[in-house]
Amino acid sequence: MWSYILKRTLSLIPILFIVSLVIFFIIHLTPGDPVSYMLGDEATEEQINNVREEMGLNLPIYEQYFHWIANVLKGDFGVSFHMNTTVLDAIFSHVAPTLSLAIFAQVIALLIAIPLGIIAAIKRGTIVDQAVMGLSLLGMAVPSFLLALFLVLLIGVHLQWLPIAGYQPLSSGLWNHLKYLILPAISLGSIQAALIARMTRSSMLEVLNNNYINMARSKGVSERKVIYSHALHNAFLPILTVIGQTFGALVTGAVITETIFNIPGLGQLIINSVERRDYTVIQGIVLFVTFIYVMLNLLIDLLYGVVDPRVRLDEK
Fold it and tell me: Long-range contacts made by residues 292-299, C-beta under 8 angstroms, separation at least 24?
């Protein structure tokens, strides 16, 4: 197992290098000057050139990249042009809301998707199965931002049950923390629940047709134990893969939802950084998010061996 972990960890290096290369050149080749934005319209050409020289933006682009990547390897992601703080401090100050939202949305997705997927598999071909699959298709078709706006209008504005925007840290109390996340978590989790439910149904149907399931039933094993102890356990690997992918999507793709609900997470940080042409922050966030995503994939691979001992990680 340790050799597998080491091999997978080393494989992250070229991925992160390619991502850093692509994002650096895309950002720096995009029209717009961060120095002009930072100094304002009244700055003279001499002032702009002096600041560009201080920041190293007057160097050839390949030299800028090598300087930046050398500092990244030392743990220095640079300093934000506009926030007067380091990039890592900016990321860490915004990552908690994003992770809280992603975890809460994933919990909602699992609570909805797993039971519905199991029920649809058990009731295959019935009106219940068709209803579950219809709901999942609707969930995949409706954009999360549209569902978010509908929830804001119905629950936040008309019923006034929950706040429609803002964020409170966990230190302010569990309920104060969660009540600001319920609406955005539902809007994100419902979309992911649709995908997980369809995968759960498909995986369960494949397992329920196996002979050992019929043998367990013929031996008098209760239907509940057959479903949850035998079928779900053996069908869980594909479901686990989708869970990992959806959680990665929640962490990396909540930009619009965070903007709608005014949540100060990574999504809002990267939107503000793009508007300000804050190159170092954009580059740092993309690398950070990429690292989280590939580490999630590594974690899912390791969990395969826990869920199913027949999976030998050393042989991959």
Answer: 292/248, 292/251, 292/252, 293/248, 293/251, 293/252, 294/12, 294/15, 294/16, 295/12, 296/244, 296/247, 296/248, 296/251, 297/244, 297/248, 298/5, 298/8, 298/9, 298/12, 299/244
CA angle 14, 19, 24 (to 5 degrees): 130
CA 39 – CA 185 distance, rounded (Å): 39
User: Is residue 143 included in any domain, yes or no?
Assistant: yes
Which amino acid is located at 315 in the chain?
Answer: E
| Tens of pLDDT, residues 266-293 | 888 888 888 777 888 888 888 888 888 8
CATH number, position 249? 1.10.3720.10
pTM score of the predicted model: 0.82
Contacts of 32 (CB under 8 A, 6+ apart): 277
Q: Rounded to the nearest 5°, which phi and psi values hold at 202?
A: -60, -45
pLDDT tens-digit series, residues 174-190:
888 899 999 999 988 88
- In angstroms, what is the C-alpha Rg of the chain? 24
| Residue 13 falls inside a structural domain | no
Cα torsion 36, 39, 40, 41 to 10°: value is -70
Domain range holding 257?
87-315
Q: Dmax of the chain from CA atoms?
A: 87
When divided into structural domains, the chain yields a total of 1
Is residue 57 situated within a structural domain?
no
Structure tokens at 65: 């990249």
Tokens of 82: 């506009």
- Nearest in space to 123 (alpha carbons), one of 113, 138, 110, 133: 133
∠167-270-102 over CA atoms, to 5°? 50
In a domain, 138, yes or no: yes
- In sequence order, what are the beta bridge partners of 79? 86
Query: Which tens digits make up the pLDDT trace of 88-98?
Result: 998 998 888 98
CA 30 to chain centre: 26
